[in-house]
Write the structure tokens for this entry.
Amino acid sequence: MPELDENARRNLSFWHATASQPPLPPLADDIDVDVAIVGGGFTGLWTAYYLKALDPGLEVAIAEANFPGYGASGRNGGWAVGEMAGMATRFADPATRESAIRLQRAMFQTVDEIGRVTREEGIDCHYAKGGTVNLATAPAYEEHLRAEVGHWASLGFGKEDFRWLEADEVAQRIRSPKARGALFSPHCAAVHPFRLVSGLVDVLGRKGVQIFSGTPATQIEKGKVTTPNGDIKASMVVQATEAYTDSLPGHRRQLLPFYSMMIATEPLSPEIWDEIGLEARETFGDPRRMVIYGQRTADDRIAFGARGGYLFGSKIRSEFSPDEKVFEEARRSLEELFPVLEGVGVTHRWGGALGIPRDWRPVVGIDRRAGRAWAGGYVGEGVAATNLAGRTLADLILEQDSPRVDLPWVGPSFGKWEPEPLRWLGVGIMNRLGDRLDGRELAGEPASRVLSSVYDWIVKK
Ligand SMILES: Cc1cc2nc3c(=O)[nH]c(=O)nc-3n(C[C@H](O)[C@H](O)[C@H](O)COP(=O)(O)OP(=O)(O)OC[C@H]3O[C@@H](n4cnc5c(N)ncnc54)[C@H](O)[C@@H]3O)c2cc1C
């Protein structure tokens, strides 16, 4: 993979264009460390951070194919959200409900933990814990979200975790003519993701972690990571490659790379912000299957995302043309929420790949005998979950008796997705069907719920 020059880096996303990171050298020789980490996204960086917090003398090296924050961690919507993919099936099963509730609480706490670390380490990533507003923009979504409030309450989560806002209460936070009400949760912070990445890189450098850019792992074996210009020998190797995992020999079909696409507007005038609100920088979206998510940035733009798609053969794409239809669709969705935005300039358009495991459940794991540990499969909710994963990996590697090591996502590595063309056909059919039935009912139930049940059934087969 050729190294990107400064200009190409800045073109990757709005976040890359508005934060810098000093260049880091590639690995040029064999080295010997205690822990080698493959992948310089949030998973790898947080793991290194907590390893050094537990044992400052530990020698840790990170091999990153491009530069830290090249992947999803530098390109995302910046929602450090206290939610995690795959929780619905954990809550639904009486055998796993209690442990799932513990995991959920640990995720809430993780949003504050990111705030704590960034404050204490002086990482200025524009962290603002304004909560998240899930807008009921259609009658079916209102029904769905009201039911969700009831569902959380039945699991023991109170109004301090999730509460329904009537339309007039929503308007105190965010003003959209489409909002019929909203589900509000305080457990979310807006961040500038690439500033968070680069801040962590800086802190890790000061703590003595060696980070190598332009250093792709071509093979991971027991005790050794092979890269083009040298090997990293280590008794423990952490795999933190998320959507790019497919390209590692022996790890094909573990995580499906799925694209999410984003736009950023020009900075908006105070008059426009008076009409929209979001004074506390609450993140916002609605429950449509297409997935939309937005944040008010610290420099008063809206960064807004929408689902992209999957490419045959798990192909990884790194370049996106600004003319792609999906960007226009995202803009239309944003204008539907806030008609006052009609005609404002969109200054940045980009995309990125997130990783989806076959059962949609992220995992953290370790195999001591093989000298290997891993974490990933966060789907589109990894900004905060990677922090919990990093803390948990550090605990597991250093054999700490912490409340994290028996959380229910600690377990075996990922199952395998089907070979092509089944994978492509399956994902495509579920997406088309989901979009067509979005907001409708099937047999008296919201179609999204019926489709999820069908999906869960397929996954279990
Ligand atoms: C557009 C978009 C929007 C999103 N929005 C949100 C959001 O708002 N909130 C949220 O919670 N989540 C969001 N996500 C998901 C979230 O960004 C990810 O879950 C999270 O960043 C995953 O971090 P990671 O470190 O595991 O993976 P990544 O950040 O993808 O890092 C993996 C790294 O490994 C490197 N790598 C790959 N192969 C090799 C190799 N062979 N050798 C060495 N290095 C290698 C890559 O270059 C990459 O830097 C979004 C994702 C995208 C794409």
Notes: The two ends are 38 Å apart (CA to CA). The CA atoms of residues 51 and 381 lie 23 Å apart. DSSP finds 14 helices and 20 strands in the chain. The first strand starts at residue 31 and ends at 38.
